[in-house]
Structures are given as C-alpha cells and as structure tokens.
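Lay summary. Proteins are chains of building blocks that fold into shapes, and those shapes determine what they do. In this project we predict the shape from the chain. Here is one chain we studied, written as its sequence of building blocks.
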Amino acid sequence: MIDNRSLLADCIEHNAIRLVDADALRGTPEGLPTDFDFQKVEGMLLGLAIGDALGEPTEGMLPAERRSVVGEQREYLPAHRQELGTTGAGTDDTQLAFWTVEQLLEDGGLIPDHLMRKFTGAHIVGIGSAVRSSLRRYKSEGLPWQLCGVESLGNGAMMRIAPTLLPYLQNPTPSMFADAALNTMLTHNDSGNIASCVAFVSMLWELLGRRAAPEPEWWIERYSSIASQLEGDTAYEPGYERCGAYTGPLWKYAVDRCLSALAQRRSVLDACESWGSGAYLMETMPSVLYILARHGHDPETAIVRAVNDTKDNDTVAAIVGAAVGALHGLAGLPDRWISGLSGLIRQDDRENVFRLLFHAKQVFWLRHRG
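And here is the predicted shape, written in a compact code that computers can read:
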C-alpha cells in the first residue's frame, strides 16, 4: 500500500498546499464491519454516476426554469452533450471519478503525478475552469503536479473525490486523509476546498460502515468537526446576492445556514434558493449537506431533490448520490437508474463504470480476504 503521509507533510512544510496540519489528518479510520459488503462501495460510485447522468440534460438551469421545461424530473432525459451516450450519460464528474478508480487500480494507490497524467489523457466532457487551468499548467507549461492546482472554491474536486478511499477498504490508515488532500490539491489548491474534500471522504468512510441512516444533524456536525480543523483562518464571501454579507470560513457559513434552515424545516428548494446552488462551494456545500440532512434516509428522494432543486444539479446530485449510495448501498438505488446508465468514461472506449467496479472489487476487496 502506498503511504502518502510523508508526501503530504512535505507539502505542508514547504507551504505547497493550503491546509492546516491538524489532528484530523492523523486519526486511523475505524475498520469496516466484519459483515461489510462491497455493494456499498458500488452504491457509492454508481450513486455518483447516476446523479451526474440525471442532472446533465438540465445542468445550469435555475429550478423554476427547469420545472417549466421538463417538470419534476425522476428519469433520464436525452443528454445535452452526447459524447458519452444519448441517455444516462455522464460528464466530467463521472469521468474524473472513474479515471481515478482506473489509476488507483493501475498503481495500487494514489500517485499524484500519475493521476494528473491520467486526467490529461482524453477529452473531458463539460470540463470546469479550475480543472482546465490546472491541466494546462501540467501538460502545456510543464509544471510539476505540486504547482498545478489553482486557488479555487469550485466543486470540481469534491465531485471526483469518493474513490480515494478504495485502497483502504481492507487496511484503513491515516494515509487516506493525506490522499484526499493531495487529490484535491492537484486541481483545487484552496484551504476551504481541501478541508471540505477531506471531511467528505471521512464522512463517506463512516457511511460505508453504518447500518442505518444518521440523525439529520449528523451530516452537518460531522462535516464541521473535520473541516473546521483543517480550513484555517479563511475569509470567503458568498457569491449569491441574496445571501447577505458574510466574510469567514466556508465550513462555518455552510453549517450555520444548514442548521438554521433545518430548524425552520425549510424545503430543499426554498433553502437552496436562499444561498444559491451553483458550482461555488459556498453554494454547493450547504446545498449538499442540507439535502442529506433532510433526505439522507431516502436515497431516491435525496437524488431527485438534488436534480430538481439546484442549479449545478449534475454535480450536486453526484456528490449527494455518492453519500446516499455509500450509506444505503447498491440495493438502495432504483434498478431503472442503474440499468439506464450509459457507463462510458471516454468516447469510443470499451472501458466503463461497471467493468471498473468489477476490477476494483477484485483488487481492493476480494484479493486480500482470508
């Protein structure tokens, strides 16, 4: 197993990564239950792909506009971009997540330089500006991977971060948190972003081990307990004009907004419209946490609300889908959504999400079982 703790420590020591060196990076994740079933990992990663594919046709529409065009969406629609299929097609969310799976299988763990090279190897559907800039720095300008990530609070790292925990299924170590930080840093070298991605990976790990849905407050409080240690003294401002004045950490903004909305029992639509639901993590993070707090016990409803009630709906639904998939497993996701996925991660390529999951099960789960 590759242990990246010393690599992360070196990045921290030389101020190459925007991250506070805190205890949250050093704890050993609790081992998975003895009766753990890999179908929870399959649920996590297919939940991500399903959310992305459901949201893709109406990505970027405001919820009111979307309702006027397609009504309440619960099924796949014809893809807006058809590079990866005509229906049930993914975008960069699915591609980058499953290219990460692919590279982890090739290397047996995270080697950041190899993953950056993987990301530059094929056309990315709907690529975000931060990812585009970081890959240009790596491929065209020849910068080392440590210098490629841009200072961005976009959601393009969180959408792909779930596979980070795969190498640790049999042997959890603190290196999982180092991997999450380094993976994020490749494209989004930003304190709030890295802190949020490490927190989300930790939450996903705990969800894999859970047998029942947590209380609504758990989602918000668990995120806060980790991100608050790692983010540091940041001064972010919301980009959505209805939010009002705020300057401070991302984690505090997201937590305060979510707890207030939860106390008022606001609908997902109403709450997300109050803080925005675009690709900026000041909007994505509270939207994801609130959807999970309200509907994490019901995976189909959680994904449907993400698809219908947010603006950057493919990515919000992908992140929500990963979380509810990790909690409820493959059995918790509707069969029609699974069978309807195109599963492609490149144009004209036989490799797809289902084959990669099969290989991941052999390598990261079955191979080491006695």
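What the prediction tells us: The domain at 36-72+84-366 is CATH 1.10.4080.10 (ADP-ribosylglycohydrolase fold).
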